[in-house]
Structure formats: structure tokens, C-alpha cells
Write a structure and sequence with these properties.
The protein is an alpha+beta fold and 305 residues long. Helix content is 43%, strand content 17%. The termini are far apart.
Length: 305
């Protein structure tokens, strides 16, 4: 709290006092919450451990990149957006005016128009184009897992997706001891076939990178992006993740199509773009009930049921 108050005071240019805390840790993988204050409240997320500083640094840089290139709504950083603390780092931003705050998880109080706002935000993000797949500026994280954004040769989406997303997650899942050998072999077969399965190469688009629906905050008339892992890639990668954990209404995709097209072949490729995410869950949490359920989804995606 002292670190938050000091950063908010510097940001404001005069003393800022905390008036209370709303704990949001049950909605995130890190301890986080909103420190109430006047004239603004502060969202704070604590990342600890060996990669804590690196995780917050990557997220702050990712949000800044998205703001600069796309203009899509992201949280306003408090000061530089990060404060080092004992054992890790705090990510700090001005708290967003979330609709239905306190009503539970976002999916429990969103309206079809809220989902449409997510679709529009993604479409505007994807209108930003890059020269190659990946991101030379910096690497990032997918949850707690480091991921390289370095471009590959040849510069195709199939090559990047294989070398920088699927294969690293496959190795981690195998090393965790939670991935059955038959599923590992099935994933390897899919990687070998990626050039034919991925379809035509798109122009590299700026991606959220972890676009499951809870990584958007519904604010009045808009959707703000949080927990980003940006790089340039296939727009379908983001579209496949919005309903990774729970369904979304068609209004999201309809609003997206008002700004950017969705290829008719996308539904057939949706599970392909989820492959890296499934493997990441197995690597991190494969022994839990959620991890075991993810193994079933992975087996279905691979045709190994």
C-alpha cells in the first residue's frame, strides 16, 4: 500500500491517500485489487518470483505498444506503470470504470453490446499490420510462461506458430509429466502438417496474444484490453481464444465483421489456434481438475479420443 500511495502521489503531483481496497485476486492468476482514492483509484497487480519483474515489464511495454499503434483502449499507467517491490514488481494503472463492478466474473454481467465492444476492439487492433510475423521489440509471457516473439525463417505464419508457440509449449507440457505420450505424438503430427492446415498466409496483424474474454474489461461504450501478450500474427489466433474458457454470443463476431472480415474457413481452424493454449494449461496445471478437462479438449482437437 505504501508503494501504491507513493506512486499515485508522484503521478498526481500531490499527496494521494488510499481510502480502501477491493480485492480482485479471485479473478486473476496474481494477487491484485483496486486501491480506492480521490481523484482516481489505482489498479495494482503483484508479480513475484524469478520472473516477476520481467512479467510486469513485458505487460507494461505491451500495453504501451498497443496504445501507440492502434489507439484501442488500455488502462492508463500510473507513472511508469511499474514499481519494484521486495520479491517482485507491481503493475499500476488508473482503475477502469468497469460495468457491473462487484457483480462477479465479467461473463456474468456482460450484455450482447458489451461483447460487441470486444469484437470492435479486436478488429481495430487487427487493422494494424506488421512487416513480419512475431515482434522484434521484445519477448513476452503467456500466463507465467515465457514466450519468444523473435521472427523465424521462412517468414510464414505456419513456421512462426510452430517454432514460437506450439513446439515450446509442447516441450513444457512433456517436461511437466502431465501429457500422455499419445497426445504428444498427436501434437507433433499436427506441427508437421501446419503448412497445409494453416491455410493462406494473412498479412501479419497486431494481436492481443491472450484474448480470452476475461482479458477485456467492459467499460461504458467500450472494451479495454488487459493482460496482453502482443505480437504480429494471424487474426484468427485471437478470435479462437475469446471463447477459450466460456461461450460468447454472436454479437462479438458480428461487430468484428463490421470492421474486418473473418475467413469462412475459420471455424474449421479454431481448435488449431487453441493448441498452444491447451498445451500451456497442461504444462502449468495439468494435474488439477481444470488441467485434466483440458487434456480431454486437447485429445478431441487432435482426434485422439
Amino acid at each position: 500500500m505504501r508503494a501504491v500511495a507513493a506512486a499515485a502521489s508522484d503521478h498526481r503531483g500531490r499527496p494521494w491517500r488510499c481510502e480502501g481496497l477491493t480485492d480482485l485476486s479471485d479473478r486473476a492468476s496474481h494477487p491484485c485489487g483496486i486501491f480506492q482514492g480521490t481523484p482516481f483509484s489505482v489498479f495494482a497487480k503483484l508479480a513475484t518470483g524469478a520472473d516477476g519483474v520481467a512479467q510486469v515489464t513485458a505487460e507494461v511495454r505491451g500495453l504501451a505498444l498497443i496504445r501507440e499503434l492502434s489507439g484501442v483502449t488500455t488502462p492508463v499507467p500510473v507513472g511508469p506503470g511499474m514499481v519494484n517491490v521486495d520479491g517482485g514488481a507491481l503493475l499500476l494503472s488508473q482503475a477502469l470504470p468497469e460495468k457491473g463492478a462487484g457483480a462477479g466474473l465479467p461473463s456474468e454481467h456482460r450484455t450482447p453490446e458489451d461483447y460487441a465492444a470486444i469484437g470492435r476492439a479486436l478488429a481495430l487492433l487487427h487493422r494494424v499490420r506488421g512487416e513480419s510475423f512475431g515482434l522484434t521489440a521484445f519477448d513476452g509471457f503467456y500466463g507465467p510462461l515465457r514466450q519468444s516473439n523473435a521472427p523465424v525463417a521462412p517468414d510464414t505464419w505456419a513456421s512462426f506458430y510452430a517454432e514460437r508457440r506450439v513446439l515450446p509449449m509442447l516441450r513444457r507440457a512433456v517436461d511437466s509429466g502431465q501429457l500422455p505420450a499419445r497426445l504428444a505424438a498427436g501434437a507433433e503430427r499436427v506441427v508437421f502438417r501446419l503448412p497445409e492446415l494453416c491455410g493462406p498466409d494473412p498479412v501479419p496483424a497486431l494481436l492481443h496474444g491472450d484474448a480470452q474474454q476475461n482479458n477485456f474489461v467492459s467499460v461504458p461504450g467500450d472494451a479495454a484490453l488487459i493482460d496482453v501478450a502482443p505480437h504480429f500474427g494471424h487474426p484468427e489466433f485471437d478470435l479462437a481464444l475469446v471463447d477459450f474458457f466460456s461461450p460468447v454470443p454472436g454479437s462479438l463476431f458480428a461487430a468484428y465483421r463490421e470492421i474486418a472480415p473473418i475467413d469462412p474457413g475459420f471455424p474449421a481452424r479454431r481448435e488449431l489456434w487453441r493448441l498452444a493454449g491447451y498445451l500451456a494449461v497442461v504444462a502449468v496445471d495439468g494435474g488439477s481438475p481444470f488441467g485434466r478437462a483440458t487434456l480431454i479438449r486437447l485429445a478431441t482437437a487432435l482426434g485422439e479420443t
